[in-house]
# Entry
Amino acid sequence: TERKQAEAETGRKTGVVYQGDYILLLRDAVQFPGGRYGTYIRLFNKSLHGGTVILPVTQTGHIVLIRHFRHASRSYHYEIPRGMFELGYTIEANSRKELWEEINAEPMKLTFLGETYPDSGLLGHKVAFYHALVSREELKVNDVEEGIEEILDLTYEEVKEKIRCGEIQDGFTLNALYLAELYGLL
# Structure
């Protein structure tokens, strides 16, 4: 079979490589177009949905960013709220929960922007994107354990300047901004 052939040619076991509370790492057996066998790694959120990303925008049109410490890069990033999909919630309910947890916001309006694969070469799941109309007055960091240092309220021009000068590098944030612009929401 393909699996036995790939394991024999690569010396690597296929199947589940790692399974944690949130992620599943698989090594798949593959046969390349030239006939050679090999393996590929795929990473999944255990719920099989990658999560949700929410672009909060105030009634004045300002974009809400958070300054968030991320363990993987060992640095702070300007980004928008997001979270892994949790079972027992719809994607929309999960988005509302993440907004509340991260910036204390209850959206007045939540608009679905679409889904994308954040890294189709490694990740086997999609991420849902939303635009959320929020009130500036209620914003505050709800969970200090999250690593969120501050909340910023910026014009779209200020956000674009942060992108141009390299202060915003988060792919989810860049993707959400582009999707919202495509739908005329910015």
About this structure: The first helix runs from residue 2 to 10.
